Amino acid sequence: MRQVFTTGLLWFSAIGCGLIAGIYFAFSTFIMTALGRLDQAAGIAAMNAINVDIVRSLFMPLFLGTTVAGAALVVIGALRVSEPGAVSMIAGGGLYVVGMFVVTMVFNVPLNNALAAVQPSAPEAGAVWATYLKDWVFWNHVRTAASVVASALFIAALAV
Predict the structure, then answer these.
(1) Using one digit for the tens of pLDDT, what is the confidence trace for 56-99?
(2) What is d(CA 92, CA 151) in angstroms, rounded to the nearest whole number?
(3) For the chain, what is the radius of gyration of the CA atoms?
(4) Into how many domains does the chain fold?
């Protein structure tokens, strides 16, 4: 039973990380570029609308569930450190929790809040938007890479 639970968590985490990575990849490779080509007020308004809708979507249960599953896999791996796949579970879960969840909470969410606080057509909005595009995308690249590598580590744990 214990192994079935762990295997289920690994599958859920591998798929969840992959889905999250895909969303972040889309933002890193073309969504933010497209929003950056819009005039400042339209770009800010569009990103703020995305930020409002994403927390009300199925993204949030996946985002939170995969984070909890990743943290659980760190604990399970630590308790079974001598078993095959344990190091991959620990590394994948730790990377995902820190590289995706912590980065989101410490960097991306505050940037989203700062963007939401500015009036899109205000004179200071141009500087906020320029900084947002540069900094948010950088941290999104970090989240993307962490999610991809964590997914691969969970798959590696399943393979052994």
Answers:
(1) 999 999 999 999 999 999 999 999 999 999 999 999 999 999 99
(2) 7
(3) 18
(4) 1
